[in-house]
Amino acid sequence: MTGKRHKARILALQALYEVDSVARPPGMAIERLLAEAELPEEISGFSRELVNGTIMNMKEIDRNIKKYAPAYPVEQLAIIDRNILRLAIFEILFDNKVPVKVAVNEAVELAKAFGGGSSAKFINGVLGSVSAIADH
C-alpha cells in the first residue's frame, strides 16, 4: 500500500505542478494523469483528495510557507519545491490522515526525486518548523 500511496502523491504533485505552471484546471490535470496511471480507485481517490484539498486550502497553506520560510517568497520558489511544500503542508495541517513524520518523509523523497540539489534539505527544514506546530 505504501508504494501505491507514494505513486498517488507523485500524481498529485504532477497535477499541482500543471495547475501552477500552465493554469490547467485541477480536475482536468489529475483526471488525465490518473487515466494514464491506471491505479485502483482507492489510490486514485487518494490522489484526487490530495489535489482538491491542497487547492481548497492554498491561501492558508501559502501563508504557512511565508511564515516558516520568510526568506523565500512563495511566488519565487521553484515551482516543484512550492508544490511539494503545499502538498505536504496540506497533509500535515489539514488532512491529518497520515502521521506527520510520514508526510515529511514523503515530501523529502519527492524533493530528492524531482527537485534541485538543495530541495530536500530546504523542504525538510520548512516542514520541520510546520510540523512543530502540528504536534502541539
Structure notes:
The protein has helices at residues 2-22, 26-37, 41-56, 58-68, 79-95, 100-114, 119-134. Helix 5 packs parallel to helix 7 (119-134). The chain has 136 residues and is mainly alpha-helical. It is built from seven helices and no strands. The protein is globular, with a radius of gyration of 14 Å.
Task: Give a short overview.
By secondary structure, the protein is mainly α. The chain contains 7 helices and no strands. The radius of gyration is 14 Å and the shape is globular.
Can you write the helix and strand succession as a string? HHHHHHH
Low-pLDDT runs: none
Mean pLDDT across the residues is 94
Which percent range describes the beta-strand content? under 5%
Number of strands: 0
Keywords, separated by commas or semicolons:
136 residues; mainly alpha; 7 helices; globular; 0% strand
Note the topology:
Layout: H1 2-22, H2 26-37, H3 41-56, H4 58-68, H5 79-95, H6 100-114, H7 119-134
Helix pairs in contact: 1-2, 1-3, 1-5, 2-3, 3-5, 4-5, 5-6, 5-7, 6-7
